[in-house]
Amino acid sequence: MDLHADLGESFGAWTMGADADLLDVVTSANVACGFHAGDPLTMRRTAAAAAARGVTVGAHPAYRDLAGFGRRFLDVAPDELAADVLYQLGALEAACRAAGTRVAYVKPHGALYNAIVHHEAQARAVVEAVAAFDPTLPVLGLPGSAVLREAERAGLRPVIEAFADRAYTPAGTLVSRREPGAVVHDEAEVVARAVRFATEGTVVAQDGSVVRVDPASLCVHGDTPGAARLAAAVRDALAAAGVTVAPFAP
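Now predict its structure.
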């Protein structure tokens, strides 16, 4: 099972996340590409730090929304969105090459990630950008999402991921961050959910129903307070459960 976190989300003098500590724990890093967070220096430093630790780097493209941290839906035309995603992939790849590594997969961020669960046109736009950039790159998403269907249709590798620290709806989507309980903060609960994802492939939704996910990768959000400690606890629990923790896209 892969264990990843969203990293590189500092911007200029504004610092977010415990990236160095998380990179000592995770097997993959979703690196912000400058549209919701991150800047050229942050991207370069994060790519270099990941490379030094043997952590796989993935691109974390978003809507062009620094003020909203990419967590607001934008009704972007598909051709514009495809160009924006392609631009972000190229920017991060340049930083990765300078660090002796490469972009190995793509995981959209925030509102874009949630939109392309159902928004067919934007899902196609994201997949078009990835295919144009490198058709060998896997794309992460929720099970049953439009973006994973489009990725498979385009010949890309669709990869299902799960969120150890987010609440789920009975439909298998993430509870909106605008709703109470959307983010799970209790360490014991996050750890238990992670182990269940890895060993049973399921999660208990907010209404108590059991949802099948069958993920190949688990996410712990880098901007959650105590994220590095949480990720370490998850990794230790996975190992104790007999789960091998390794990147899905080495």
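The mean pLDDT is 95.
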